[in-house]
Sequence to fold (1052 residues):
Amino acid sequence: MPLEYRNLDATTAYTGLKNIDAKAISLKKLLTPERIAAYSIPAGAGLTYNYATKKVSDQVLNALQRLADEQQLIGKFEDLYHGAIVNPGEKRMVLHHLLRGQLGKPVTYGTKDLGAFYAEQQQKIADFCAGVHKGKIKGSTGKRFKTVVQIGIGGSDLGPRALYLAVEQYARERGLLKMQARFISNVDPDDANGVLAGLDLATTLFILVSKSGTTQETLANEQLVRAKMIAAGLDANKHIVAVTSETSPLARSSAYVASFFIDDFIGGRYSSTSAVGGAILSLAFGPKVFEEILAGAHEADQLARNPNIRQNAALMDALIGVWERNFLLYPCTAILPYCQALLRFPAHLQQLDMESNGKSVNRDNQRLKYSTGPVVFGEPGTNGQHSFYQLLHQGTDIVPLQFIGFKEAQTAFDLDVEGSTSEKKLSANLTAQIAAFALGRENKDNPNKHFEGERPSCLLHGDQLTPKSLGALLAHFENKVMFQGFTWNINSFDQEGVQLGKILTKEVLAGTKDERLAAYAKLLGV
Amino acid sequence: MPLEYRNLDATTAYTGLKNIDAKAISLKKLLTPERIAAYSIPAGAGLTYNYATKKVSDQVLNALQRLADEQQLIGKFEDLYHGAIVNPGEKRMVLHHLLRGQLGKPVTYGTKDLGAFYAEQQQKIADFCAGVHKGKIKGSTGKRFKTVVQIGIGGSDLGPRALYLAVEQYARERGLLKMQARFISNVDPDDANGVLAGLDLATTLFILVSKSGTTQETLANEQLVRAKMIAAGLDANKHIVAVTSETSPLARSSAYVASFFIDDFIGGRYSSTSAVGGAILSLAFGPKVFEEILAGAHEADQLARNPNIRQNAALMDALIGVWERNFLLYPCTAILPYCQALLRFPAHLQQLDMESNGKSVNRDNQRLKYSTGPVVFGEPGTNGQHSFYQLLHQGTDIVPLQFIGFKEAQTAFDLDVEGSTSEKKLSANLTAQIAAFALGRENKDNPNKHFEGERPSCLLHGDQLTPKSLGALLAHFENKVMFQGFTWNINSFDQEGVQLGKILTKEVLAGTKDERLAAYAKLLGV
Fold:
């Protein structure tokens, strides 16, 4: 069937969903052990998506299935991984799925087989890592590299950083932590100066990440790093590798020990499983750990091809998100991992979601009359319980919650304190929160101690956060965001909203003639 | 005049504000260099609050002044610092202002002068720090302490951590970094295990922070730390100090090297300027740096007593927030510091704001019909520009923005790259963003490249983030949140919304009979 692109509010399913009496859906009435067992979908690599505490009834789910069918979400995903131009604004294919496995037919650009190209880059990285880890590739004073520092911003920072932190203790515990990683992103010189203050530069390898090779912040930070290395008597060219596109000014320059390539079909926020994440994660943990992340992501990608929403976790999650955004009218979503290793995963998902779907025009550049992507924020639990959960429980707005939890910690050391280990306490807290939000608790005497309940959440759970389950977790959200973009009929793969700031920054640095800009520039000491 | 408590929607000013045609207020029309100069208020310690890019007209400001007068906001603040019971639910005074200086008459509890009590605790901390820094107080194997680790959660973690990070590079650059600090908060054992993996326990001093002495997470982490110390052959009792209340089980126990006290009148999220922040910040940077933070906070507190909203930065910020929340109907606020040192300051403000004002009942426990505290989130710029700013610029919802910026970095090393230093680039980017959000840029040919503008922001700016300006920044937001609470007629100082989770956690750990809780507990391995 040929693909058709239509706005959400032009679908029949939209009208059907509008006509559902959402207020009649009560979690207090609906939630049973049977529902908890039934409202559960495998999400890859041992993860399970449970949506029993979402405000959905069978009627809603059936309508969402019709919406998925009508908007041809699976067909559009197929189109994407077969190499169609699904980023119409930039006239580009979108191929991050191909980084972790072949979902459809081979994708070529001209005569270039892109799957082979990505695999080749990964192999180059693995070979380079072997050289570094065995001490064959060393710093300019002959010392082995012990630390690796990524210089990059946005997608070149948030995803790789979140994944590094998610695996660091896991790897240390298992003797797999080959190099400590650090990250420099902000153009504020305090960022680079702070990171560099704690390092022995002679044993530090830097990874400069910029697809275009022109990112202002990244190039400024490169120069700060080079100046510090020169001052320390080091040959900077022997301490930096580049991750960039083949056509960038950084590619194959003698200023870098090596260059690893990405291309225009890997968007920044979708690049964690490319060389952008691959170089630093492979250096830190070894290429095999990175391969496990890819394998987990590929498993989730394969599951995302199922047209039955009740069997496709990412698709179900996406559609429930649309239900919450456009029919229940909730403006935000919180990401709440009960897993300290995921401490920066919410910041990555914030970019992934808000940069992809924070759009006001459809893929044909027509203004939309309905809401698109929500505000996404979050912190790990139990920390958040002692912070912003007050508003989540008793505030005047309802915020849908995305919980993430595991049976086992990544590290083995734990103690029984007052009858339970820390890990059991963590899981018990998560259990309690899911119930508290859904079911509330009445207090007729004191409205200040009354919990209304009916606050929706869902849960992604598994046995342990491993590189493989982490990969599946990452891909789950990438695919969720993609399906939502298709449903809203927007282009989730461009980011024109960041351009005006870049243009005006240049104007300000060149000495603007706009008196208003000049006034602010003066206040800020430009 | 006696104080009266009435709901926001029961005021005359409310009706006046409702009747203003907000859509007629256009930043594109209003923003001029004159407005930028005029809409500016000193915020203490060299900070300035600029609200020229807020969607307010003189008509709005006059109505907000009437609202401030009618709700007796300054009178209620006076009542607070004179020691009235302004936390009615818990029947407590609210005295964090007293930690940094006397604003009103002496406050006593029974015969105890509380100002003197807080000063005494600060002096005890200073004396203890002198002992540690001079090497008179050492670890159990006779080694000097080099690292200090705070064990605490929520207010015992977020504020102190944000402040530590905000001063770390400043102090290092100036030779004031006496001890490196680390933080353990989450009950997830991976948190403690990860922090401890990088430490030499023989030279590490821990600060256990729990007002009640019963915080589940903190006590569990204490036992993990003690077990590790015992395994390393150390006497744990010589490596931990306690920050707690005088009546807590931790107070004056021989299990701790020393105890520093807080009391019930210092709420967790308002405790950064008490011993909760004071112990770790004084150990890390010396007591004088902590005193500067207090001095800056006191300056901001003094300015917050001015009844003229055009001369009271915190009050103006609070009232504009109410205008945005209840009349422009914006559900979120983003905190965007262009200052890497403030990387965790948004997480602290998220707690401060959402835990204080995420309430649905008024101070008399009556259900409210209007919105209270917004969702608060944020990350440092320029990082955020490469992440969620897409939605801020072109999403379907409008998010008010709180920018923070400084003329100078905290560290001196910087380079001119392509005509400007990194610090100038940072300030130029901030300048550009303020203008881009307010003014937008038309693109008739391509709606995808069109920027509507009219997206409001405000700017807190100063010469440099120093301990003193940091103190003022902290107090600005504490006072803003307090004034908003008074305006909404809610109790900003309790947090009943966190209680149900604690109760249910105990039920789960005890083996719940509720089949739904049991089902989730099983999924999560409790």
